[in-house]
Amino acid sequence: MFKILEKRTLAPDIVLMDVQAPRLARAARPGQFVIVRADEHGERIPLTISDYDAARGTVTIVTQGIGHSTRKINALEVGDHLANVAGPLGRPSELLDIPQQELQSRRILFVAGGLGAAPVYPQVKWLHERGVDADVIIGAKNRDLLIMVSEMTAVASEVYIATDDGSEGFRGMVTDLIRDLVDNRGKRYDLVVAIGPMIMMKFVALTTKEYNIPTIASLNTLMVDGTGMCGACRVTVGGRTRFACVDGPEFDAHQIDFDEAMRRQTMYRSHEQAALDPVREKDHTCRIGLK
Amino acid sequence: MANKIPRVPVREQDPAVRATNFDEVSYGYDQGEAQLEASRCLGCKNPRCVADCPVSIRIPDFIMKVRDGDFQAAADIIAQDSSLPSVCGRVCPQETQCEGACILGIKGEPVTIGKLERFVGDWNIAHGDKTPPQITPNGRRVAIVGSGPAGLACASDLARLGYAATIFEALHKAGGVLQYGIPEFRLPKERVVACEIESLRRLGVTIDTDTIVGRTVTVDELLDQEGFDAVFIGSGAGLPKFMGIPGENLNGVVSANEFLTRANLMRAYDKGYDTPIHTGERVVVVGGGNVAMDAVRTAKRLGSEAVIVYRRSQAELPARVEEVHHAGEEGIEFRMLTNPVEILGDERGWVRGIRCVRMELGEPDASGRRSPVEIKGSEFEIECQTVVMALGTSPNPLIATTTNGLQTQRWGGIVADDDGATSREGIFAGGDAVTGAATVILAMGAGRAAARAIDRYVMDKLEG
Questions:
Q1: How far is A191 from chain B (nearest CA, A)?
Q2: CB distance B271–A68 less than 8 Å?
Q3: Between 3.30.465.10, 1.20.120.790, 3.40.50.80, 3.40.47.10, what CATH number should domain A94-218 receive?
Q4: DSSP of B188-213, one letter per residue?
Q5: pLDDT digits over B33-42, tens only?
Q6: What's the pTM?
Q7: A96: buried, middle or exposed (CB in 10 Å: 19+, 13-18, 0-12)?
Q8: Contact A204, A178 (CB under 8 A)
Q9: Is the CB of residue B348 less than 8 Å away from at least one CB of chain A?
Q10: Quick check: ipTM above 0.90?
Q11: B404 and B347, same structural domain?
């Protein structure tokens, strides 16, 4: 059981929690994720690590309540326990392998869409602690859905905001903002790291390809165990099947088959909707003799 | 003559009924049945069954105790060589081990050693002596990676020797393959697996779930920073294989690991759990081993037509005879000498069928089995909505790649001798992590051998 020490609502349905998990907090690195189960009957949900504190023995997770299982997580309060928090899983960001001197000469742009700001934050923070200042774009539908802007501002060189409706910052998609920065504002980048909805990462990859900027995307695929056992997270990268949980979650965005990845994300969607819809549940006749 | 008594049949759920539920197929013997079946044993002076048991359980001895109604004594005899009789009695391939060697089998039917073992194991869980043995702690600590058969057996023996044993399990429930792999209808989780784990806890073994060795903590950290005297790696063979044919990433293609983990560990068949599982009108399972049988029978129980596609013939099926027999009774369709060449999708990227080619048997291959050869122009399609790949598994590289200087085979298995000693001092390994996918009993045996070796290693070091 993993105790929730802090809980904050960052935006409608988006909740941040500090969870007690000392071993995990010691081992966590930027780019990794955890698998969380709210209770004994819950699904195992992969969530990105948005911060960690080895001294305090806590990891920070940010969850968007979009389905039954994520809402269950977000319904828990300070003092409650998550049944399971396992990790850190996946490979740490490859930025960690680059020597510091080389890192300092890199011009890095992070593109965070929606919930993606949460996993982007520890990477930017890690770089900042090593004297590397990166730019960050945070994109959201509207200003109410922007998260972690002040945290990011504290560790990033520049934070650019993009909202679809223009309610804050740049009006338009993050891809339009990338173009604006490069075409009109004289920005040059050697590396883009995109984390957010699949569709956003796909279009960021298409955009940066035009500019020939190497790009990394972090894939939030379906998973069960998160350790390479189930293969639910299969993605095609450069024509090869890879497991996002152990080979990723970060891959060369220009090599990822995003259309396949997006299609694979929908595999259990009908079930998820049924679980949210008690009327449909009622109409369901069980075929295996259960009540 | 004892052997004139016909083999005592074991009562089973009616196939038509059990194909719609997840309750255990076999009810097992009651006391009277067990004693009658036990009376068939000839008590051979040179028992061939013992020779063919991977852990050399003193089979005639325990069977004689069953015959005499002294079930505690029978349990004690088995316990000397096996720590999981309720499990192995259910899942061992007895026909190629003990029962295959039974003298009675030459002219008639062998003693049902597996069912008797199960009876004794279940009796012991229900009525056996639960008082923990007197253990004098020796102050030494051993970390055990993985809570499957190898890890459970290793921990149990070490605890009895006085060690403080801590098992680290990556998933949220202990048991390894007993929990995520083998279905409820073959191995009940509460009545058997949970009881075996509870008995380990009574011995003082600590189990840390949600701890992925290689990620949450490394083997080197356990030895250097957390003060463990030795580490046993029993992390199994958990990586699924795929065929590498077109269409394998379509929606509706899953590994048997995923399918079974959703059903077993995550209880997708139980409405009280949130776990989704994808089936459809027809599910095709590719493979012929026990895992394939487990997957196809699970699909059937979830309400689908369920089909096995296997490239060799019935005679080469590697699954236990009993599983194949039960599957047949439950209405599983077997398409033998059939090999998938492509998985077909609809315009939305979901599985709509599988294209297969018919095979014929050619010359024996390295494994001694006749190898299947494609019959040209024999391609055909089977309509289905789900394809489950049950092609075997290989060891997870996570531990080997995060442990300094731990040697592995080219295919990923950890290099270890018969006692489990690896290329690193103080690190031992056993079970599927060393051999590749094998059986519960071999893993259990390896765990026990490693426990003895770990004890020698730690004691030598103390003296030295």
A1: 27
A2: no
A3: 3.40.50.80
A4: -IIIIIHHHHHHHHHTT-EEE-S--B
A5: 999 999 999 9
A6: 0.94
A7: middle
A8: yes
A9: yes
A10: yes
A11: no
